[in-house]
Design a protein that fits this description.
Helices cover about 65% and strands about 0% of the residues. The protein has six helices and no strands. The termini are far apart. The relative contact order is 0.09.
Length: about 160
């Protein structure tokens, strides 16, 4: 089957520095700038049916993790948990799990862009130079935000 003819264009203004960085990425990929930009744009259009399943599985795992960690936190403090309190923990985990899964997947996707984008790397370096914590994959504070529970007496063990 013959591929449809490309007869529409998309353009964007960039600075000289951004242009140089984009051109270097294209050349490193063995493509001219136009081909590289087209691939970058069209890759966002490709359907990824596994992403929905991936998000669903991640959401369920994050929900289970929240429930388990809240329960273990309370038990480690010698605090029994009633059925009503357990229901609240489960309801809160269920309410938050999808948004947390989306955020994690978005952070993962952004970290992929960060590894390939000199502009983003410069921004990450600038944040680090300003004393902001840098987590894994160059994400500012990702590891720090994912670390531990509130240990300042919150009875629900929520992360702060």
């Amino acid at each position: 089957m013959e591929e449809p003819k490309r007869n529409k264009s998309v353009s964007s203004k960039v600075t000289e520095q951004e242009y140089s960085q984009l051109k270097a990425l294209a050349e490193a990929s063995g493509l001219n700038l136009s081909e590289w930009c087209r691939e970058a744009l069209l890759s966002k259009l490709e359907a990824h049916p596994a992403e929905y399943n991936e998000q669903t599985i991640l959401a369920e795992l994050l929900g289970l993790r929240a429930i388990l960690l809240n329960l273990l936190y309370r038990l480690s403090k010698g605090q029994p948990i009633s059925g009503e309190e357990m229901r609240k923990v489960i309801d809160r985990a269920d309410a938050q799990k999808s948004a947390k899964a989306q955020a994690r997947l978005k952070a993962r996707d952004n970290s992929t862009l960060l590894r390939t984008s000199p502009c983003s790397l410069q921004n990450a370096e600038r944040r680090q130079d300003n004393g902001e914590p840098m987590g894994t994959e160059g994400q500012p504070g990702m590891a720090e935000r994912q670390a531990g529970f509130d240990t300042h007496g919150a009875d629900d063990g929520r992360r702060r």
